[in-house]
Amino acid sequence: MSMATTPTPTTTASGPTAEQHGIKKHSDGGWGVVPIQTRSERFHSTNVEDFPAITGREATWKYTPVARITELTSSELDGSPYDVTTTDTAGVTIEWVGRDDARVGKAGAPEERASANAWTSFEKALVVSVTGEDDKEFTLTRSELGQGARGAHTIIEAAPFSRATVILQNTGAAHLTENLEILVGESAALTVVTVQEWDDDALHVATHFASVGRDAFLKHIAITLGGGLVRLNPAAHLVGSGSDTELLGAYFADAGQHLEQQVYVFHDAPHTRSRVTYKGALQGVGARTVWVGDVLIGPKAVGTDTYEQNRNLVLTDGARADSVPNLEIETGDILGAGHASATGRFDDEQLFYLQSRGITEDEARRLVVRGFLAEIVQKIGSPALQERLTDAIEAELTALEPSTSAGAETAGPREN
C-alpha cells in the first residue's frame, strides 16, 4: 500500500502558514523552498521511493552512523511473517493481517526513509488486540529474526475502556527496521514495554506511532540494553480531549554501542497531558547515546500540561552522550510546559557518603547507577520483568573499571 503525500512546507491544513511566521524562501542559490518550521509539517509517506538516499547530513540522521544501517535504508527487505512466542492471556489475541486492513496507517506514517522502507516491504502486519476492563499482562517475544535484513509492521489496538500491559521482548540476532502502531481507544489504559536485549552485533531501527483517544492513557517504556546499533523513535499523538501519555526510557551503552532515541509528543487536543523521562548510562570507549525530544503544542491544545527531561550518567572516558530537548508552543492558553537535560559523571558527594559507611568504591558506583536507572524500571508494573531487568543492569555494571571512570565526552545542553 502506498500513501505518498506531496511536501507542502509553506502551509498545512491545520497549522500556521509561512506568512504567519514571517519566513521567506532563500534568496541565494536559486532555492525555492521555505524551511519547515513546525514539527508536524514534516513530509511523510509510506513509499520508500518518495525519500532520497540518506547522506547523514539530514537533521533527523545527523547523530546516527548511517553507514552501519545502509542495508535497512537502501536495500530490499524480507517482509514475510516471522515466528513469535506469546503468553496465553485472556482478553488479548494476535493475528496476521493483510496490508489492506483498516487499522494499518491509523496511528501515523513514516517521516524518514528507514521507516518507509519497512512500510513498503512488509507483507502482513502482526496485530495484538486488547479487550476487557480487567488488568492483564501479555508478553510477545521475538528471538529468531536472524541476520537477514528484515522489515516488519506491528499494531497494538486497545479497545475503549480496556486495560493491559503489553511487553515486547526482543532478543537474539536481528537486522531489523520496523514500524509499531499503537491505537488507544477512548478511556483505555495501556502500558507498552519494549525491551531490547539483542545480540551485540544486532541492528534495530524502529518508529513507534501512537494515537491516544479521548480520556485515554498510554504509558510507553523503552528499555535498551543490547544491540550494536539501536535507534528507537516513539511518537505520541494526543488526538482526544483529556488524553494522557507517559513516555519513559532507560538505556545502558557499552563500548562501541550506539543507542538512540528521538521522541515526539504532539498535543493536538484540549486538556491533554504528557510526561517524558529518559535516563541513560554509558561506559567504555566508543559508547554513544543520543536523545532528541520534540514536544509540539498545537493551536487546538488549550490547557496542555507537559514536561520532558533527559538525564545521562557517563561512567568512563571515551563515552559520549548527546541530549537535545525541543519545545514548540502554538497556543498561549496552557497549564504548563518545560524541559530539562543534564549529562554528567558520578556525584562525588554520593560516593563519599556511601564510602563513609564502609561501602567500597566499586560497590558504591554500582549502587548509584542502579538507583539512577531504577526510577524508570520500577514504573513498568511487572514485578518479574522489573527484577530481571535489574539483574541485567547489575550484570552490565560488573564490567565497569573504577580506574577508568575519571572523565567523559558529553554534548548537548545542560539544565534548562
UniProtKB/TrEMBL annotation:
Pfam families: SUFBD_core. It comes from the Bacteria. InterPro entries: Fe-S_cluster_assembly_SufBD (IPR055346), SUF_FeS_clus_asmbl_SufBD_core (IPR000825), SUF_FeS_clus_asmbl_SufBD_sf (IPR037284), SUF_FeS_clus_asmbl_SufD (IPR011542). This is Fe-S cluster assembly protein SufD. One of its GO terms (biological process) is iron-sulfur cluster assembly. It comes from Leifsonia tongyongensis. Residues 1-18 have a biased composition (Low complexity). PANTHER family: PROTEIN ABCI7, CHLOROPLASTIC. Belongs to the iron-sulfur cluster assembly SufBD family. Coiled coil: none annotated. Residues 1-31 are annotated as: Disordered. Residues 151-372 form the SUF system FeS cluster assembly SufBD core domain.
